[in-house]
Amino acid sequence: xxxxxxxxxxRTPLAAALFLVAASYAGPAPWSAPAAxxxxxxxxxxxxxxxxxxTLVLAVAVPTAVLLLVMHLHAPSPGASIVRxxxxxxxxxxxxxxxxVAIPLAAAVGALGWIxxxxxxxxxxxxxxxxxxxxxxxxxxxxxxxAVPEARRRAREVxxxxxxxxxxxxxxxxxxxxxxxxxxxxxxxxLVTESEERALALDARGFEPGGxxxxxxxxxxRRGERTARAALWLATALILAWRLVAAWRGGGGGGGGx
Amino acid sequence: MVGSTNDTPALALRLxxxxxxxxxxxxxxxxxxxPGEIVGVAGHVGAGKxxxxxxxxxxxxxxxxxxxxGEVHHPLGGVPPASYVFANPWTQLTELGGxxxxxxxxxxxxxxxxxxxxxxxxxxxxxxxxxxHLAPREPRTLSGGExxRVALASALALDAPLVVLDxxxxxxxxxxxxELVAALGALAARGVAVLLVEQNLDVLASLAxxxxxxxxxxxxxEGDPRALLERWPPLDARLGSVAAAExxxxxxxxxxxxxxxxxxxxxxxxxxxEHVVLRELSIRVPRGAACAWxxxxxxxxxxxxxxxxxxxxxxxxxxxxxxxxxxxxxVERRARHVGLVFQDPGRQLFSRTVLEEAxxxxxxxxxRRADAERRAREALDVVGLGxxxxxxxxxxxxxxxxxxxxxxxxxxxxxxxxLDxxxxGQDAAGKAWIGRALDAQRERGASAVIxxxxxxxxxxxxxxxxIPLTSP
Lengths: 258, 472
Known about the structure:
The complex is a heterodimer of chains A (258) and B (472). With 258 residues, chain A is an all-alpha fold.
């Protein structure tokens, strides 16, 4: 299920997502990144893709924060320590550092998660091709966005073939590790083979990497969406310009997250 | 289509030699195909047919590694000058289209045509390939035969002056084959040049004005297909056509055979989402029998096999093999009772050598290595692959991969062996090896063979069941 975002012209959620990425990294600290994260998750929930986007956010942001905290584990002075597990501890600055990286990252992943979870890749490439995206770039985009589901589908096929020969995939951890090892080699080989087959199929259909593709069904683009996109691009440009000016003046404004 | 006169060929092929993988795959060939002409290419497995077809379409040396010593001309031009239908329906999806209609549109979209023209091309191609009813479906949910129609429509949508087809009927049911023959006839009547690689000489005899017969990479004979067959009957047997297949016992197979059922399926219901594929299907296969499962493309024959194996869930009904109820068992436990060879066996092979592949099943089912390898070697001998046990499965020709998948299933010693379209792309010799596998299986249980190849069914099976089409 793609949710209701897929009813829009894909360039609109893309422009909104890029605005949030810019806001989370270049907007005024400390509130721009948490605000961008809240918007990303709120829109995802409202359009029916909240669970998938939240999973993406947690999968990226939580390990990043934990890794940073582990890197900051040291023996702080007693007054600065807020967490003290045994001889090591974390001070407030370390926690703020970790959040300062993890929250903008979570906001960016959440915003781009709209595209991954909420927009059909082929519709996105059609919409971008209408704006002059070359055929090779369109294909790379589709292939990238489809890579994970494609690998999952192939893994399922290989697994089915192996189960048909009696290989069990349930049971204890040892059995699962054995199944995983049996799966890995054939999966990689089959993905490579499939990419070669795909390349041949594309060639046979007259695919030219530098060519410009048209579309059977052009993606509708309402006037309201065009206006919204123009506003989003303008806002993105203003944030980036503000950030550049602030940096040029010597770091005033303190962009870059929480 | 590019404007032309009948004197200007759409294909002018002058090959001295073609190398693929450092090996000479094709010797001297000289071939012209003119607009409106259908030229057939026949030959045994490994004769060089696909190499010739790929060279003719301009794909060899560009999209497919190979070295051509000679010239391939497409004097009528065109972008592209030739379209191509591959033998394997599963490997020709571009994945740039989410529906059949969008998949067929990929070619015209690549040509940069305006949407209205693309729409005309897509509708006309789908109609000509008898695939208009599939337009809104997702390609990956289609059967092999249905996919092959989509592949044909995709090739036709390019509107190239030359269409090259590599064994397009291998996955088609008899009705669909007749429709394809009619479609190719109509295509030629519109002035398109057609180069048709085909094992089924009846199809070539009914369509082609000329046939080139290849053997071991060289032209063995060339001329009118009927005259060639009359003049040289052994040629027919060598290529495995319908006429060559002398039935063992009867010309028409009984729909039911006597004997206790080894497979007993009762009122099976299977659906993919809202799409009902099997509705209250009951079917039996007696012990010691080889049963052909016939039916139209999309009737659900492969789905039945996958449901018996547990790969697709049944909504209702019971499945028993040799008295054991399978419906509650996981796939890996059903593997002790059933061996299934997929329609596309290349996706079923995953080991590093042919021997390892055949021994995988017995090993995971608990056999010691020596015993597993002994059973694997016996099974490989049954299908004629005993000399290839050290080869990598991925390096085998598709026809040999299919026989390897059969050996791998046989080696596990299942009570029921199910083969899904085992004869696709096989020549007479290959079919005979598969027939031997059915003989071997008769002694330990029974077989079900999903096939559109009625001559194979008559020759090697004991009975036939037709799976009805639940929904069009």
